[in-house]
Structures are given as structure tokens and as C-alpha cells.
Amino acid sequence: SQQGEEDPQALSIQEGENATMNCSYKTSINNLQWYRQNSGRGLVHLILIRSNEREKHSGRLRVTLDTSKKSSSLLITASRAADTASYFCATDAGDSGGSNYKLTFGKGTLLTVNP
Amino acid sequence: DTGVSQDPRHKITKRGQNVTFRCDPISEHNRLYWYRQTLGQGPEFLTYFQNEAQLEKSRLLSDRFSAERPKGSFSTLEIQRTEQGDSAMYLCASSPGTSGVYNEQFFGPGTRLTVL
């Protein structure tokens, strides 16, 4: 079953604008990650935020995590046409040894960046 | 290219036929995962291996599905008596298996299955 829900389901912006996507999840987590998927391709890992972190940056990406609300947001600044893709959040709850094994994904946000 | 590879990339089959997919993980990774992704949805976990041992199977993995990783390297996913509902992208991922720390999963390009 899907753990999370991304919001919005689809987002269309102009090049240079910022894009914000949100993710909500249901159960306690160890980590939350964001992945990108170009049409018909595999998943590319973008950024990971641990459950004890609140904000993380990587290049043009900014991720926030609010464990009290079980939600996360991904901000892409100064978007480019090449950012056009589906974006998924994924959570892992870890096994008894404390390390992750399976990821639970949301349904994704389809981002279109118009030139 | 030393990433995760999957073969074939596309498979079209008729209902009732058997199909087998192969995944070659990154060579030093001892964990291997299979996910299934249907149109408009996120990937859903199917099963995972630690070396050659299959440690968990999702309820999505019916009796018609079987996965193996005989030597702890490549893995195969077989679907017997395919149904139209099996049409999906089948994704494989691999990761190191270091206990107690986060292990990033690296995904392959996927095998797209179409059952007619």
C-alpha cells in the first residue's frame, strides 16, 4: 500500500520559477527521501532527510520535514525545463537491525517546467 | 556502466504466458529489491534479498510470482500464467547492507511488461 500522498498531483510552471511539492505519510519513519523519475525511466535519488532533521539543502533543492504533522516538502528553486519529471517521496521505517530495507512511496507529483 | 541493469527493458506477452526478468545489481551490493509500478502510481515493494536469502515478500507477490538470487549476485523475477493486471514497470534496486546506517537504494531502468 502507498505510504504517502504527494500534493499537488500535477504542477505546471515557467522556467525560472520555484516549484514546491508536498508529501504526507502515515507511520513513524527513520528517513524520508525524494526521488525523480523521467518518463518511463528508473528512479534517481535526490535527497534524504533523517527523522531528527528539519531542513536540508542540496544545490537547488530544499527539503523540510515536520514529523509532528507527518509531512515533508520539496522546493526546487530556479526551475529548468530539464526538471520536468515525476517526483516521489519515499519513507523507510527500518528493520529490527535499525537499517532500512524497503521503501514506501507516494503517488508522485508530475512537474512540468515550460521553457 | 556500473549501475543496476535490467533485462529486458520491454516485454510484451499474451495472457497465460510465463515471463522472466533479470536484474544485475551493483557488484558490491549485497541487498537487492524488486518493486512494481503501475501507471500513475508510485513504486510498490515486492520483495528483497540479503545476499541469496529472500527475507521478505509483500502480499502483492502472489503464488504466480517467484524471485530468486541463487548466488547472491543477479536476481530473476518470474511471473507464471500472466494476467492483464500484471502489466506494470518492474523495478530492481540494490544497496549495500551495512547494518545500523542508511543504505541508499540505486534503481535500475526497469522492465516494462505489457500483457495482452
Protein described:
The complex is a heterodimer of chains A (115) and B (116). Chain A has 115 residues and is an all-beta fold. In chain A, 0% of the residues lie in helices and 53% in strands. Chain A is built from no helices and 11 strands. In chain A, the strands form 2 sheets. In chain A, strands 2, 4, 5, 9, 10 and 11 form a 6-stranded mixed β-sheet that branches. Chain A is globular and about 40 Å long. Helix content of chain B is 0%, strand content 48%. Chain B has strands spanning 5-7, 10-13, 19-24, 31-37, 44-50, 53-57, 65-68, 75-79, 88-95, 106-107, 111-115. In chain B, strand 7 and strand 8 (75-79) form a beta hairpin.
Strand percentage of chain B? over 45%
Structural class of chain B: mainly beta
Please report the number of helical segments of chain A.
0
Point out poorly predicted stretches of chain B.
none
CATH fold type of chain A: Immunoglobulin-like
Q: Tell me, briefly, the overall form of chain B.
A: globular
